Every structure is written in structure tokens, then in C-alpha cells.
Amino acid sequence: MKVFTTTPLFFLALATLLFHTGFTQAQERLPEERDYKVRPIRLGVKIGFPNIVGGNVEYVTPLLNDRLSVSLDYSTIESDWFLSEEESGNTETTDLSYSYIEGGLNYYIFKAGKGLYAGVSYGQMKFEGQTDVNENGMNGTGYIDYNHSSFNVKLGAKLGGLFYFRPEIGYSFSSLPKTIDYQVRYPDGTTERDIYDFEEELASADIIFKGLIANIGFGFSF
Fold first, then answer.
1. Which residue, 132, 117, 99, 136, is CA-closest to 5?
2. Residue 17: pLDDT over 60
3. Which DSSP category does 114 fall into?
4. Does 77 map to a domain?
5. For the chain, what is the domain count?
6. In-domain check, residue 81
7. In this predicted model, what pLDDT tens digit does every residue of 180-197 receive, in sequence order?
8. Domain span holding position 153
9. Could you read off the pLDDT of 42-95 as tens digits, one per residue?
10. Which run of H or of E encompasses 11?
11. Strands, DSSP E only, in the chain?
12. 99 in a structural domain
């Protein structure tokens, strides 16, 4: 599987800069009085789209009175984890993988480090693998290698203390296409282009192709 671009490194550098800047600012001011403890490190799981299922880490910086956080999501899924050739009901062999990585910033609107927040993020998904193809009596192998990037806006809420629950909705400005082109190779050396239909092959709801982001997260804060 190919490695993602330097986007994660950018967010790591940004998080480091924010941490040092925020720590300096925090030393120069008195903390806001609050009746709860801000637990800045959050480790959890997100389930939904486009994450499918994957890990999430968030750090609440001291910036803006502990209201600005840095967040990173990562998911990777292999098709054979869920579906075998016998279970698929046909003789085709499909070996596909899905990866998603996303980094962004969240701003907690009413309370420091908890409650309702608005966020912006940049995500990259990768869909790759191969599948058997039979066209006009010829058996071939289709090779799928598709990358998709998007800028996103979100609205969510971090509910709880040590253990938290996090519902989140949002919108992607670059929605997922319903079909993609991929290359088919035949044993005689010839190749052709074919179309992979996400909606048909993955039995996907039409709403995910309109830019909707929706997930539920849960985890622990420290």
C-alpha cells in the first residue's frame, strides 16, 4: 500500500507549534475559573463515514483559554476481514483495502475543552486492490488505485469527562464520486478501462455521495 502525502507531518508540526505557543501564553495569564478538570489528551474510536471504523487522537492546547484542539483520525480496512469468496455468493475474487486519514482543528464554543465545538479538517482516502473481471468471455484482473482528498467542516460535541461520547456531523466540499475508472489486464497482455460503481458494488447509501460526514466516537480523556 502506498504511503500518504506529507499532510500528517504538517499537522504534527502544527500541533507542536501550537503546544509551545500555547504553553508560553498560559504562563503569562491566569487560567479561567471552571468547575471541572480539562483533560487535554483524548484517545478513542470513531465509527461512521468516512472513517468507517478507526482511531482518533485529540489534544486540547492552552490556546484561546483551552478551547482550541488538534485532532487526527486514521482508519484502515481490508475486504477479507468481512467477506470471503464463499460468503460473497459468486466465483469472483476481490481483494480491496480502504484507508482514511484526517487532521484538523476544533474550537470549543461554550466551555474549555468540552461540549459543543466547530471544526475544520483535511482528509485523504485511498481505495485500492484488485478484482476478477469477465468481459465478453475473457477473464482478466482489474486493478483499482483511487485517491480522494477533501476539505471538511464539522460540528460536534464532546460529552463526558474521563470517559467521553462524541457525536459529529459535517460536510465535505469534495464529495465521493459514485463511479471511478480502473484498468483491466488480460492474460494475452491487452488492457482496457472499466468502471467501478461504488454505490452498486458496496451497497452504499446515496447520501454518502453528497458530501455528508457523520460519525460517533467514544474513548478516554487524560
1. 99
2. no
3. B
4. yes
5. 1
6. yes
7. 888 898 888 888 888 888
8. 7-211
9. 999 999 999 999 999 999 999 999 999 999 999 999 877 655 444 444 445 678
10. helix 7-27
11. 41-49, 52-60, 68-78, 94-108, 115-135, 138-160, 163-172, 179-185, 191-197, 212-221
12. yes
